[in-house]
Amino acid sequence: MTNNPIIEVKQLYKSFGNEPALNNLDFSVEKGEIFGFLGPSGAGKTTTIKILTGQLNQDSGSATVLGSNSQHFKENIYEHIGVVTHDSGLYENLLAYNNLVTFARIFNSDKKSIDPLLKRVGLYNDRNKLVKKFSQGMKQRLILARAILNRPEILFLDEPTNGIDPGTTKEIHKLIFELRDSGTTIFLTTHNMTEATKLCDRVALLNDGKIAEIGSPQDLSLKYNKKIQFKVLLKDNESLKLNDSEETRGKINWWLENGELQTIHSCEPTLEDVFLQVTGRKLK
Amino acid sequence: MNISLRKINAIFILKLQLFLGNLSLLMIPAMAIGYVVIFKNFFPANTVAFKALTLNMGILLNIIMGGIMFGAYPIAEEKEHHTLGVLMTSSINATEYFIGSLLPALLILTITNIILVPLNGTSWNQVSIINYLIITVICSIISILIGFTLGLFSKNQTNAGVVSLLPAAIFTLVPLFKGFSNKISHTSDFLYSGVIPRFINQSLFKHSYSWSLFEVSVLIAWFIIFSIVLFYAYRYKHFD
Ligand SMILES: Nc1ncnc2c1ncn2[C@@H]1O[C@H](COP(=O)(O)OP(=O)(O)OP(=O)(O)O)[C@@H](O)[C@H]1O
Ligand SMILES: [Mg+2]
């Protein structure tokens, strides 16, 4: 990785009243990665996104995005940023297509890119419907389409699949990977550890406004893999969980050689387990 | 602050599309037209006083009620559907947004104002079209600015309709009833909407109109006051 982060956050502090919502966050995001903020409700995920996108001012510390201080954004920085939060709305009384055309005009992007984009999010056949007739999942996909219309360098997604059906979730995940592969940096938040594990190149575990751990999902699982265990299923359907030891390895070898083994898994902790270990708290 | 004509144009087209799809808003200019047409054709008391009264009523309804609603509704709609924040995080600044929202409203109101005069049976020989346009455009802009401010303080479109009614009624009715008492007449002189009946009456009764320094000052004062009020209202209200 380069040492030229696209987002750099230093000692970021924000409180509402007495309780700090963000308590001196430090992290940076590299160009081209999918960076996830994983944490339970109230951890400070949305607050962080609002500050990083210039919609809220912090009390102290700094956030630099694409080289600009988020407290002093000029409007044109938004030509390079896409934002999707819970309160990203749509013009309900306009056609889906006209919603996108409006933003194509704003960004001066080619109107010809709208149809392929609508196809990509599976809304092409609904392009001439009023948005108020859309389901929640359709609206979410249209909001996402709008956020990437200007081919942003960074895309901020606040719980992009919250309340979305599994089919749409899968499509959104696919889209996020495609965007990453085309060079877009993605900063997303989620309280879903499966999603974080699947999508993110690196995650920060956020709890009570503090970052408890940061790293790739795999590195974190391995780091907290204190007690190595194996789960095996034998030919006679006997299922066993064994602690790693000289004896266990001997047994496994014997089963392997004698064709006794149906399945074998190592039991490193999930991000959920890591979160519980680090914070003493469950994700949900 | 950079101002991009392209972005103003994008907002202009957006708002025009929304206006043309919003029947409750279009009802107001339609009512102004309907009012003038009905009174011209069904009450053919062809006195100058009657003509002046109907024309004043039509223009005030369009400019004051219409202007305030055309300002308040769209902003309340943006707040209700959480789209204002989206525009602001899509590189639109406040100036571009307000100019882009003001112009299509002004266009619809001005077209209505222009057709009200012949519909009322008044000739452009009696009313100087230049003065008419200057006065109606300035008064429409002030109404729209008042509407923007009310819209920023509304939670949703229904709420915007409710909070707009009282100011709209005051600015419409006080100038209309100024003949009733000296007090009302005096108050009307200080309202921006008071300039309209004075202009129409002088044009129709005395066949000439000349600007007074006092009227110019009243218009400028209202314009400046509501530009400032809007500026502060926007600063404190737009992201909640
Ligand atoms: N406008 C506000 N006024 C007061 N408190 C707030 C405000 N916004 C957030 N908070 C508080 O700040 C903390 C962090 O909130 P935030 O919305 O960032 O959490 P989150 O991680 O996004 O949660 P969720 O998963 O529920 O969306 C919470 O304790 C919340 O109550
Ligand atoms: Mg949140």
Automatic annotation (TrEMBL), chain A:
<protein>
    <submittedName>
        <fullName>ABC transporter ATP-binding protein</fullName>
    </submittedName>
</protein>
<feature type="domain" description="ABC transporter">
    <location>
        <begin position="7"/>
        <end position="233"/>
    </location>
</feature>
<dbReference type="InterPro" id="IPR017871">
    <property type="entry name" value="ABC_transporter-like_CS"/>
</dbReference>
<dbReference type="InterPro" id="IPR003593">
    <property type="entry name" value="AAA+_ATPase"/>
</dbReference>
<dbReference type="InterPro" id="IPR003439">
    <property type="entry name" value="ABC_transporter-like_ATP-bd"/>
</dbReference>
<keyword id="KW-0067">ATP-binding</keyword>
<dbReference type="GO" id="GO:0016887">
    <property type="term" value="F:ATP hydrolysis activity"/>
</dbReference>
<keyword id="KW-1003">Cell membrane</keyword>
<dbReference type="GO" id="GO:0005886">
    <property type="term" value="C:plasma membrane"/>
</dbReference>
<dbReference type="InterPro" id="IPR027417">
    <property type="entry name" value="P-loop_NTPase"/>
</dbReference>
<dbReference type="GO" id="GO:0005524">
    <property type="term" value="F:ATP binding"/>
</dbReference>
<dbReference type="InterPro" id="IPR050763">
    <property type="entry name" value="ABC_transporter_ATP-binding"/>
</dbReference>
<keyword id="KW-0813">Transport</keyword>
<dbReference type="Pfam" id="PF00005">
    <property type="entry name" value="ABC_tran"/>
</dbReference>
<keyword id="KW-0472">Membrane</keyword>
<keyword id="KW-0547">Nucleotide-binding</keyword>
<keyword id="KW-1278">Translocase</keyword>
UniProtKB/TrEMBL annotation, chain B:
<feature type="transmembrane region" description="Helical">
    <location>
        <begin position="129"/>
        <end position="153"/>
    </location>
</feature>
<feature type="transmembrane region" description="Helical">
    <location>
        <begin position="160"/>
        <end position="177"/>
    </location>
</feature>
<keyword id="KW-1133">Transmembrane helix</keyword>
<feature type="transmembrane region" description="Helical">
    <location>
        <begin position="211"/>
        <end position="234"/>
    </location>
</feature>
<keyword id="KW-0472">Membrane</keyword>
<protein>
    <submittedName>
        <fullName>ABC transporter permease</fullName>
    </submittedName>
</protein>
<feature type="transmembrane region" description="Helical">
    <location>
        <begin position="97"/>
        <end position="117"/>
    </location>
</feature>
<feature type="transmembrane region" description="Helical">
    <location>
        <begin position="58"/>
        <end position="76"/>
    </location>
</feature>
<feature type="transmembrane region" description="Helical">
    <location>
        <begin position="12"/>
        <end position="38"/>
    </location>
</feature>
<keyword id="KW-0812">Transmembrane</keyword>
